[in-house]
């Protein structure tokens, strides 16, 4: 499967193509000032169980790091996320490379990267669902994004108090030779 990553700045697209992959805390996306890009329900579980709706505001784990890409390329996504588009030629190879990088970054403790298509059914979450399921859910108004996500848990954030202010980004570095074959600049 091909995937597409959009960037507003060329330097960020170039860094991605060289194998510097930026993940962000899940809650980072809730607080983006650009109303078209923000998701006020990011990291929020909305349960609609037997007709009773319940919202859990801090459902996101403090160390959930995500990378958002798309399965589609179109003018709407370029307008919303940037004109500098990179094609990821093989989702499976990309995921394997991210998992290997995460493993070394976390000193052999890191787990594999989780990845999946986003479903646009926020509000159907139930108590029995795995936390990872909510990471791959968004409200229906974002369905034009056709989003695909990668997820890992950063130990640095799990080991500090939530009141500490840390950089909301983490970088996984991929092999540059692999990056040359895995990514294609579409700008």
Task: Compose a concise summary of this entry.
By secondary structure, the protein is of the alpha+beta class. The chain has helices at 10-17, 75-81, 91-105, 131-135, 155-158, 176-182, and strands at 3-7, 20-25, 45-49, 52-56, 64-70, 84-88, 114-117, 147-153, 169-173, 183-185.
How many strands in all?
10
Question: How far apart are the first and last residues' alpha carbons, in Å?
Answer: 20 Å
Percent helix = 10-25%
Strand residue content:
25-35%
Largest sheet: 5 strands, antiparallel
Structural class: alpha+beta
What would you report as the Rg, rounded to the nearest angstrom? 16 Å
Extract low-pLDDT stretches: none
Record the strand order, biggest sheet: 7-8-5-2-9
Q: Could you spell the SSE succession in H and E letters? A: EHEEEEHEHEHEHEHE
Overall domain count = 1
Counting DSSP H or I runs of 4 or more residues, the number of helices is 6
What's the overall average pLDDT, rounded? 79
Question: What is the 3D shape?
Answer: globular
Mind explaining what this structure looks like?
This protein is of the alpha+beta class. The protein has one domain (3-185). It contains six helices and ten strands, in the order E-H-E-E-E-E-H-E-H-E-H-E-H-E-H-E. It has helices spanning 10-17, 75-81, 91-105, 131-135, 155-158, 176-182, and strands at residues 3-7, 20-25, 45-49, 52-56, 64-70, 84-88, 114-117, 147-153, 169-173, 183-185. It has a five-stranded antiparallel beta sheet with strand order 7-8-5-2-9. A three-stranded antiparallel beta sheet has the order 1-6-10, sandwiched between helices. A two-stranded antiparallel ribbon has the order 3-4. The longest helix is centred in the middle third of the chain and has 15 residues, at 91-105.
